[in-house]
Design brief:
By secondary structure, the chain is of the alpha/beta class. The protein folds into 3 domains: 165 residues, NAD(P)-binding Rossmann-like Domain (Rossmann fold); 136 residues, no CATH class; 85 residues, Type Iii Antifreeze Protein Isoform Hplc 12, CATH 3.90.1210. The protein contains 17 helices and 16 strands. The longest helix is centred in the N-terminal third of the chain and has 18 residues. The chain is globular.
C-alpha cells in the first residue's frame, strides 16, 4: 500500500526506474499510455521486430514526438528519451535497463528473452503468459539463483487472481476456488479464425477499422487462452485443475459462494483448492445476469464456527451453510496496471505472482482429424486447441505442450478430440524453448516413470 511513496523516494534519490519493453502490441500500449505521465519511470527502449509498430503505439498513446526516436539505448538513457529499436538482444543485455517487460505473446521468443534478461541481471515481468505456462517454474528457479525477480504481470488476470488467493491465505481462510470469467459456449471449442467474428458479433465496419487479430481473438474464444491463464494460476498458487479440464460452469457473481465450492458442499467442483473459469453466457447463448466476463474471483471457507458467524454479522454473501464466502473484482485493466509489477520488482524485490511448482499444464488437443505431414498452426488456429490438465496427467500422456504447437510437423495421424503427443510431432531440438521444456519435464517427472 506504499508503492507510490516508494516510487517517489526512489525518483528523488536515484532517478526513475529504467524500463525496457519488448513488443509493442495492445498490452504494451496500455502500459505506455500510463507511463507517459509517470516521471518515476523511464522507458529507456522499446524493441519490436517491426519498429513502425512501436512508433505508432507511442503516437497513439499520447507520447510527444520529441520524447522518442531511432537512437541507441545509451543515447536514450543519457537524454531521458525512449529508443525505438528492433534488437531485443541489445535491450536485455543493456546496462542502462533494470527491468524488462516481455510483451510479445510468443512463447518461443519469450523464453529466450526471459533467460537473456535473467542472465544479464535484470528483473523480468513476464506478460507473456504463454511462455510462463510452458516453462515458468524453471524460469523462476533461474531468476532466484541469479538474485532477480521473475514476475507475472499485474493487471492481467492471473496476477490479480494470485493476489486474491494470497489475501485469503494471509488472513487465514481456506482457498476453495479461484479463477476468472469469460464468454464461453461448448461450441466455441471448435472455432477457427474463419468463424471467430460471427461468434463475437463484430460488424464488417468494426473489423475494417479496428486492429483485430483473428487468431488472438479465437484463442480467447476456443478456451485456449483460459487454459493458459489458469495453468499460470495453478502453478503460482498451488491450486489444482479438474481432471477433465475447465468446465466453464454458468455462474453469476451472486452465485459464487454457492457454486464455486466442492460438490460435497452442494457446489460444482471436484474438491477444494481448484482453478475454474465461469461463463458469462447461459448454454442457450443468452447473457448471464450479473456476469463476471471481465473479472476475477476467489471463494473461501471459514475455519472456525466463530469466523462463520462473523460472515453473517458483516454481510458476507455466503452459501446456504454459511461456511463459504467469495470476493470478486468486476474487471481488470490489463497493461494500465503494469506499473505495480515494475515497482514491486525493483523496489521491494517481490513478484506480483510467480510459479511455485508445476501443478497445471496446457495440453494440445486436435480440433479435427489431423493427418501426418500437416503443420500445426498453434494457439487460436485451425488445427488444435489448448486444454488445461493436471501436470501429472500431462506428463503421463507425454502431451505436447500448447506453447510448442506452432509450426510443429505431424509425423502420424491424430484423431479429433485426442491429445497430440511429443511422439506425434517433429520439433527442432536445438530450439531453446524445447530444451528448457524437456529439462522441466525431466525435473518434475514422477520417480520411477
Amino acid at each position: 500500500m506504499n508503492l507510490h511513496s516508494l516510487l517517489q523516494k526512489r525518483h528523488e534519490a536515484a532517478g526513475p526506474i529504467r524500463v525496457g519493453v519488448i513488443g509493442a502490441g495492445k498490452f504494451a500500449s496500455m502500459f505506455l499510455t500510463q507511463a507517459v505521465n509517470m516521471p518515476e519511470l523511464h522507458i529507456v527502449a522499446i524493441a519490436d521486430i517491426a519498429p513502425t509498430r512501436a512508433f505508432e503505439a507511442l503516437e497513439r498513446t499520447g507520447w510527444p514526438r520529441e520524447r522518442y526516436g531511432s537512437m541507441s539505448i545509451g543515447e536514450a538513457a543519457k537524454s531521458g528519451r525512449t529508443a525505438v529499436i528492433d534488437d531485443s538482444a541489445a535491450l536485455v543485455s543493456s546496462d542502462h535497463i533494470e527491468v524488462v517487460l516481455e510483451v510479445t505473446g510468443n512463447p518461443l521468443v519469450g523464453v529466450t528473452h526471459a533467460i537473456g534478461a535473467i542472465d544479464n541481471g535484470k528483473h523480468i515481468i513476464m506478460v507473456n503468459v504463454e511462455a510462463d505456462c510452458l516453462v515458468g517454474p524453471l524460469l523462476r528457479q533461474r531468476a532466484d539463483r541469479a538474485g532477480v525477480v521473475y514476475s507475472m504481470a499485474y493487471g492481467d488476470q492471473p496476477a490479480l487472481i494470485a493476489e486474491m488467493v494470497d489475501w485469503c491465505r494471509t488472513v487465514g481462510y481456506e482457498v476453495t476456488a479461484a479463477g476468472k470469467g469469460t464468454k464461453y459456449l461448448p461450441e466455441y471449442r471448435y472455432s477457427t479464425p474463419d468463424t471467430v467474428w460471427d461468434y463475437y458479433g463484430f460488424t464488417e465496419d468494426q473489423l475494417a477499422h479496428g486492429d483485430f487479430n483473428p487468431k488472438m481473438f479465437n484463442s480467447f474464444l476456443d478456451g485456449t487462452k483460459s487454459a493458459i491463464e489458469m495453468a499460470a494460476v495453478s502453478n503460482a498458487c498451488g491450486l489444482v485443475p479438474a481432471a477433465e479440464g475447465l468446465q466453464f460452469p454458468v455462474v453469476s457473481v451472486d452465485e459464487l459462494s454457492d457454486q464455486m465450492v466442492p460438490r460435497s458442499a452442494g457446489g460444482t467442483l471436484e474438491g477444494p483448492g481448484m482453478v475454474e473459469v465461469i461463463s458469462s453466457l447461459n448454454r442457450d447463448g443468452s447473457e448471464v445476469e450479473r456476469d463476471l466476463r471481465w473479472g476475477v474471483y476467489v471463494t473461501f471457507r471459514a475455519q472456525t464456527e466463530y469466523a462463520r458467524s462473523c460472515f453473517s454479522e458483516y454481510g458476507v454473501r455466503t452459501d446456504k451453510s454459511g461456511w463459504y464466502g467469495s470476493l470478486y473484482r468486476p474487471y481488470h485493466m490489463i497493461g494500465m496496471e503494469l506499473g505495480v509489477s515494475v515497482a514491486s520488482a525493483v523496489l521491494r524485490g517481490e513478484a506480483t505472482g510467480a510459479p511455485v511448482g508445476f501443478s497445471g499444464d496446457v495440453v494440445t488437443m486436435a480440433k479435427r482429424d489431423l493427418r501426418a505431414g500437416e503443420t500445426l498452426d498453434g494457439e487460436g488456429g485451425y488445427c488444435v486447441t489448448g486444454t488445461l490438465a493436471p501436470a501429472s496427467v500431462s506428463l503421463a500422456q507425454k502431451a505436447l505442450p500448447m506453447g510448442l504447437s506452432h509450426n510443429a510437423k505431424l509425423v502420424r495421424n491424430v484423431a479429433k478430440d485426442h491429445v497430440v503427443t511429443w511422439d506425434d510431432v517433429e520439433l527442432p531440438e536445438d530450439t531453446l524453448a524445447v530444451q528448457v521444456r524437456r529439462e522441466m519435464e525431466a525435473q518434475y517427472q514422477p520417480v520411477g516413470a
